[in-house]
Amino acid sequence: MKKYITTPIYYINGSPHIGHAYTTILGDVMKKYETMRGLNVHYTTGTDEHGQKNQTSCQESGMELADFLKMRSDNFRNLFDKMDIDYDYFVRTSSPEHKAVVTDALNYIYNKGLIKKKSYEGLYCVGCEQFKKPSDLDERGFCPDHQKAPVLITEENYFFPLEEHRQWLIDYIKSNPDWIQPKRFAKEVLGMLSEPLEDLCISRPKNRVWLGVELPFDKDFVTYIWFDALINYISSIGWSSDVSKNQKFNELWSECTHLLAKDILKTHAVYWPIMLKCLGINPPKHLIVHDYWIGEGSIKMSKSLGNVVDPYEVMDIMGVEPLRFYLCNAMSLNGDSQISIDLLKQGYKQLANNIGNLQMRVLKMIAKNLNGLVPSKDNLTTKDKKLVETISNNFNRLYNHNESSLELISELSSEILKAGDMVNAYFASNEPWVLAKDETKFERYQAVIYTTLDALRIIASAMYPFMPTISTKILSSLGINEKPTSKFAPFELTPNNQTIVGDPLFPFIG
Q1: What pLDDT shows up at residue 123?
Q2: What is the rounded CA–CA span in Å between residue 190 and residue 171?
Q3: C-beta atoms surrounding 122 within 10 Å
Q4: Active-site residue numbers?
C-alpha cells in the first residue's frame, strides 16, 4: 500500500524557524512510522519562491533572480538535510515542472468558464499578499499577523468564484468528519463557511508583481501566489489534465495527507478543495492541522524580545534527534505550545535520565558481572513477564492503528517516556546491584537483567520514527543489527548476545 504525505511549501522571504522545523519533522516521523508498518510512503516538502515579497527582496539584494531564489531555497533544504528529513521530492515553485502544471491547471479551469476578469477595489496586505475584508482586521484596521494597515488598491484582475461551491464543501466536511484533524479545526472551517464566500482573486498585474507563473490566457498577469503554491501538491506527483499521464498521481493522491499550521487553514480547507473540485479531483484524504509554538510564558516569539528559538542553535546544543523527539512530544493537542531553550534542555535531560542512563547502567553492570553477555530468560517471574508484556502490548496497539495522526504521534512519544519510567522503577525496586553480590541470587539477578534489556529493546524499536540513529545504537548495543519493525513481541532478545557499552546516548549538556 502507498501513502503520500506533504508539508506546506515554505515561503523563502524569511529564515526557517522552529515552526518550519516542527511540521517537517512531524512529516518525517509519520513517514518512518508508516514505513515500519510496511507502507510505501512518498513525502514532499519544499519552498514557495514567487510573490511580491520575494520579488522585493531579490531587487534589494542586487543578485540575479535564479541565484537569489536558490540561495533562499537552500536555507530550507540545508536545514531539512541537517535534521535528517527523508523527503522524496523537494518542491521549488520556480521549477519548469511545477510551472507547467500550474499553467495546465489554469487553462483547464479557464476553459470551463470558471475564471472571470473584473475590476476590483480592496484592502491589500503586502505581508499576507492577500486582499482583506474589514472583518479580517483588528480594531485599528491593522492586519493582525503583520500589524500594518492594508493598502487600498483598485485594479483589474482575474477571479475564481467560490460561493457556488460553499454548500458542497459544508456537506463534504460534515459527511467526512475525519477529513480535518483535530476535529476542532473542522468546526473553525464551518464557521468560515457560515457566510457567503467572496470571489478569490487569482492574479496579480505584472506592473506590480512579475515574479510568478504567467497566466496562459493573459500575459499581462501572473498567478496569485496561493493559487500557484497549492498546486505543488499535485505537480509533485505528476498531475496532468491529460488523464493518460496520471499513473503516479492516481497511485498516490487517494492516500494524501497534508500537514499544516493553523494560520493557513483557510487556504487549505476552503480554497484548495474548491480548486480541486473544479479540476475534477477529490480532496486529499486528510488535513492534519497543528497550533503554534510560542515563547515561554505564552509570549509570542519575537526577535526584538530575544525569545525566538533558532533550530540550528538548538541542534548545536542537544543534537538533531532529541529535538525531533521533543517537538513531537511537547506539541499540545489543545492549543499553542510553549518552547524555549530552557524547556528544550529539560526535555533533553528527561530523555537522558529516562532512557540514556538506564541503558548505560544495565550495560555496565553486565559488562562487569556477565562478560557483557545477555543472560538467560529461563527464570522470569510473573511480574517480570507482566512488565515486558505490558510495554509490548502498548506499542503493538499504537502501531496497529489504521494510519498516523497528530494524536497518535503525540501518544506514541508519551508512551515511550512512560515505558522508560516503568523500566527504571522496576530496575530500582529489584536492586540488581545488590543481587549481583549474592551467589545464591544469581538466577534472580539474571532474570532482572534480561527483563530490563528486553524492555529496553522494545522501547528502542518503538522510538525509531523519532530518533532512528539513537534507536539503532541501542539495538546494536544489545547485539541486534536488524532494522526494527512494527511487531513488538516480548522475550525475543537472544541470550548470549554480546552487548557493547559504547558512548552515552545523551551526553551531558549544561
Answers
A1: 87
A2: 10
A3: 17
A4: 17, 20, 125, 128, 143, 146, 300, 303
Q: First CA to last CA across the chain, in angstroms?
A: 45
Please tell me the predicted confidence (pLDDT) of residue 126.
75
H-helix or E-strand spanning residue 62: none
Distance CA 28, CA 43 (A): 8
Question: By the 8 A CB rule, do 148 and 141 touch?
Answer: no
Reduced to 3 DSSP states, what percent helix, strand and coil does the chain have, rounded to the nearest 5? 50, 15, 35
- Name residues of the chain where pLDDT drops below 50: none
User: If we measure between CA atoms, which residue out of 382, 411, 397, 391 comes closest to residue 453?
Assistant: 391
pTM: 0.93
> Is 186 exposed, middle or buried, given 0-12, 13-18 or 19+ CB atoms closer than 10 A?
buried
Positive or negative CA dihedral for 444, 446, 447, 452?
A: positive
Let me know how many helices (H) and strands (E) the chain has, helices first: 20, 15
Question: Residue 418: which of 439, 387, 377, 453 has the closest Cα?
Answer: 387
What is the C-alpha to C-alpha distance for residues 325 and 317, in angstroms, rounded to an integer? 15
> Of the candidates 481, 482, 477, 433, which has an alpha carbon nearest to the alpha carbon of residue 456?
477
221 and 158 in contact (C-beta within 8 Å)? yes
Name beta bridge partners: 119: 156
- Specify the pLDDT at position 306: 67
pLDDT of 127: 75
Give the other-Cβ count within 10 Å of 340's Cβ: 17
